[in-house]
Amino acid sequence: MAIKTVCVLGGGGFVGHHLVTLLASRGFRVRVPARRREDAKDLLVLPGVEVLEADIHDPATLRSLLDGMEAVVNLVGILHETASGAAESDKTRRGGFRQAHVELPRKVVAACREAGVGRLLHMSALGADAHSQSAYQRSKAEGESLVLGAGDDSWR
Ligand SMILES: NC(=O)c1ccc[n+]([C@@H]2O[C@H](COP(=O)([O-])OP(=O)(O)OC[C@H]3O[C@@H](n4cnc5c(N)ncnc54)[C@H](OP(=O)(O)O)[C@@H]3O)[C@@H](O)[C@H]2O)c1
User: Fold this and answer.
1) Which domains does the chain have, with CATH numbers?
2) Are 62 and 28 spatial neighbours (Cβ–Cβ below 8 Å)?
3) pLDDT-based confidence at residue 93 (cuts at 50, 70, 90)
């Protein structure tokens, strides 16, 4: 069965803008959860694109965002960790590489399983390596391997 509905996590970012625009132009229905809806407002004008403000780190919220979605693309990533103590009042901004590259993918896998999502595409990074000197690349490797190890060939 052809996929018609896609949830793009991190859809408001650089790659996300290109991907969501392409998906919309090809007639997909696209859901983009954003930390600040305002930041992704240019996507709102695209046909079939829904932008929702949501905390995707909350498992129940994430699970409900996947209702009716046949595929998920996870583009969430950061290049730099926030300074400790920064933006403590905003829980979606708390944490660093582990939260974005390891804990979130773990939650995404669980939510996809619960929601019966058949296709998961997880964006890792070239050079992701569990033994890298870079904490970024180590966290990317950990997230990548837990998606690949989830046991579903349609999740990669
Ligand atoms: N662009 C590249 O050359 C490149 C190279 C290698 C790998 N990648 C990977 O490709 C993916 C997309 O890259 P990109 O260039 O599009 O990055 P980007 O422009 O920085 O976009 C990242 C997206 O992730 C979201 N995000 C970041 N931290 C988050 C958090 N803690 N909770 C929820 N959302 C969070 C951002 O939301 P906000 O808009 O709210 O900040 C944004 O929508 C990332 O995983 C990145 O590591 C990119």
Assistant:
1) 1-80 (3.40.50.720)
2) no
3) low
